[in-house]
Amino acid sequence: MNALLRPLKWKNRKNPQPEAELELDQFVESDRHFMYQDASRPLDSHTRSPIDSIPSEILEMIFLFTQTDMYSWEYEYRKWIYCAHVSRRWRRVSLSFKHLWTSVHTIWCHIAHTFIRRSGNAPLTLRIALRSDTSGLERQTVDLALMHIYRTRELHLHVEGVEELSQISSSFLQIGLQTPLEILDVRSGLLPLEFPPDIFNQARGSLLSLTVMNVCFPYPPAFLRSITRLHIIWYQRPGSLNLISFLDMLNCCTNLVKLEFCN
Asked: Cβ distance 205 to 185 under 8 Å?
């Protein structure tokens, strides 16, 4: 599969910064510290304690509960991982529960690599940021994320140009979709962006929610027929918004239930 997908062509690409030189956040430090402490304990210290008698199903519910109401991309979201460091068994249960590791942001770099590996083949929620000042390690992380885009159920893209968007879209065509893409969020922070006509062809029919920021009208009609939620964010000057194109586009949204527009 890796041979099918070529890494993105990055501009001004520099050698990746060695991981040892990167500042590790508390998640990485805690995870490594736990593994070191656990490996250094004598075997007879791993006797079963009362807290290890909790059924695995209950532990999974505890892990999920600690994720509740936390924004997946923020550092606070990852604090649930400390629950996995209570004991060797708690850690083993967390590693076998693939759903816990499925929300991944490419700016996490080495942490994102860990999450993707631990998520197994579970459907992913991916957030990919493509910027001109992207670091070397983050570029490697984006390339890794694209190799797993075939199992992405929810995709959030922050791009600066249509070229990057087209390259990500072509990844779907090269690899195919194992998991139907249901949620797509595309944001352009600098200049208005236009959807290529063949954008995410394989996602048509499965897409339920579309969020766009500074993406020009119209959107591909076949891309809109299945969505039930459309959220449009437009931060450019009001005169650049074509009302007729907007109304024509809405006629294609035959299953639309909720429309949000922010200007």
From this structure: no
